Write the structure tokens for this entry.
Amino acid sequence: MNTLFFSVAFRLGCLTVMLLLVIQSSVVFAQNRIYANTETHQVIPLCIGCDIRNPSGSLGSNENDYATLIIGASVLGGSVRQTLIFPQPQMDYWSNVVISFGKARGLSLRLLGSIYVKTYMGSTDNNDEHLIDSTGIEFLPDSTRATYSFQPQKKYDRVEITLNGGLLGLSDSIRLYYAYNKLAPISECASLPRNPMAYYPLDGNTNDYGPNKYNGHGNVTAFSPEAVCNTAIEAFPRKDQSFTIDSLPGIQRAFTISFWVKKLDNIGETQFSFETRNIGIHSDFANELSFSVYTKSLGALFVQMRLSFDEYTHIVVTKDNNNLKLFSSGHVVGAYHSNTEIKIDPTSYNWLISTGGYFLDEVIFYNRTLTDQEVANLYNSYRLNKVRISAGNKRMGTIQLSNRLTENLLPLQFFPNPTAGFIRIGPEINPAGGSVSIIDMAGKEVSRSILQSSILKIPDMLPDGTYLIYLQTKDGRRFTGKVVVNRRI
């Protein structure tokens, strides 16, 4: 009797644990996807027999319910439109919108090619309307359903889907199952603490890849694959590379600055610096690292420590009301405490970031003080992603990547990104007849071709991963951008 009782109890306990795991995974899944929960819809005049049935079927996380957009006789150009509204605005640049479409007896690219999508922030049009094309579509195995994904370039809280009868011509319909947005990781190589003010991965440019777009500018002319993540600012003997951030808001009461540096092998005088009017981070020729702030009441305050930069080293500096801290590789190596508040002039000034003889990568600003644990977690997240933090990483003989990234290089706009294999180059560029190269993160050119249109196909032989796209147009302009290839999306 007791044996039977304990056997039943054990099985019930296992079942309970399994149910809890399922519930927990469902919660995580729901948290990762934010589904549209309200909608509006309309039939554009001159669309005879057009309708939208069960409009609420496209709302929420039930991915098998659907609304049906129906086009009747629409030779005069009528259309059916549904706007799906998310529960809160999406303010993060690194987010994707995913929309699911379907049809009872097979879904064609011709039908999907008659659908326009665009985003809004409230009633403000983001002016990003575009036709669905094959570059962002993934068909399910039975070919009756597909998802379309794209990455808006502005803040948004709703997506408008229009079935255009003028393009379709004949009577037809399409099912709209759901729309959700989800955040993509802001960094490919680390788990960043929440809410960075600015993030500079330095992957071929000095742009801010956080939500605020405090882009840097200056005379950084070369980037290197010898990096913590993808590429870093190239190190040259006896030559400085620098960039300025002139739109970064003034940080005074609390801030954090994080970055990775590595000294170029076998050279003499080297230094790097982060400077604004009242905050400075400097290394001298003897590897003495100094973190300083200037206050009117206390004068100049310093934290100094001699460090080795023969391999990539993670440096973090923090300030709160009464403390300055200097971290190396996740640990506090220097600190200053004041019994009175450390007050910095609140006026905002430009930042100048300069490096001579140092590789520099993964620069992050926060307008808050990261805790010691957050700093340690950030450092360890890079280690877990197997970044290059050992002295054994050599230059791999791929200097051609640095030579290509010159001061006249422009950012390349394309979508979707990530991509399953095709990208469309933005409308402000005419790429036809231009030469395009695909470069892997080791700096090796793995593909070169002449473009016939704005569509670039990533060769099937290339594995999933991150690549640099280098385009030189017929008129001599040069562009570059980073693309993530993931054929499973």
